[in-house]
Amino acid sequence: MTQLKDLYEELIRGFNSKPSDLNKCTVTLNKLKLGLIEAGLLLPKGDVILGDLVVAREVLEIGAIVSIRSRDIPSFDRYFAQLQTFYTDYSESLPPSKREYPIRGLNLIRLLTQNRIADFHTTLESLDADVIAKNPFISHPVNLERWLMEGSYSKVWNAREEAPAEEYKFFVDSLMGTIRNEIASCEEAAYESLPLKDAATLLFFPNQSGLLLFAKERGWQVDISAGTINFKTKGEEKMEIPKQRLISASLAYARELEQIV
C-alpha cells in the first residue's frame, strides 16, 4: 500500500498543477489502476476499508476528468463505468464526492453528442428529481437537450459560456459541430448563395476565418470580393443521372423493337 500511496500523491500533484500535467497524470493513472486491481479496490467486493474506497473513487474520478481534458472519450467511458460501483453500491457507505455530479453531467452531455437520446433519458431517470432540478451540473445538460429538441440552437451556443465546469465546453463545442452541419444542409437545400455575414450568423461563427474553413470542408465556393458563398447545386446534379439513364434505356428499348419487327 505504500507504493499506492506514493502514486496517489504523485497523481494529486500532477492534477493540481496549473495547468494539469495530463501526460504525467495518464502515466500515473495506469500504474495506479494496476495497483487498485491487485488490492481488490477497482471492483471492490465484500469487506473493504472505507478509506481505501474513497481513495480508489477519487483516482477514478480524476481519471475521468483527465480523459476529457485529453479529449479521450473512450477512456472517459471506461472510467465512468468503473465509477458506477462506487456511486450506486457504496452510495450510502461512502461520504459524498464533490466530483460525482460534475462527472454524471459530463456523461449526460456525452450521450447528447452521440445522439443517444433514449440512453440520456434512461440515465436521467436514475437520478432524484431534486438533483435534476437544482444541481447545476445536471440541469445544464437537461437544458441542452430541451433546447436541441426545440431547435433553439442560439441557446445551445450561449450555454457554452454558462457551462458549470470547463470540461463541459468540450462537449458543447462538439454539439455545435453537429448543429452547424445540420444548418449547413438546410442552407444548401434552400439557397443558391448567401452573403458571408449572414452565413456566419446562421452558423454561429464569431469570425470569418472559422466560416471560411467550414466552407472549404463543405466544398462551398467563396467569393471574397463579392462577399458571398455559393452552394453546390446538388438538385441539378442529381437530375442529370436519371436523364442519362432514361435516354439509354429508351435507345435500348428502340433497338429491341427494331429487332422484333
UniProtKB/TrEMBL annotation:
Gene Ontology CC terms, in alphabetical order: cytosol; nucleus; proteasome regulatory particle, lid subcomplex
This protein's UniProt keywords: Proteasome
GO BP annotations listed: proteasome-mediated ubiquitin-dependent protein catabolic process
Ranges where the PCI domain occurs: 74-243
PANTHER family associated with the record: 26S PROTEASOME NON-ATPASE REGULATORY SUBUNIT 8
Family statement drawn from the similarity comment of this UniProt entry: Belongs to the proteasome subunit S14 family.
Name of the protein in its database record: PCI domain-containing protein
Annotated organism of origin: Hypholoma sublateritium (strain FD-334 SS-4)
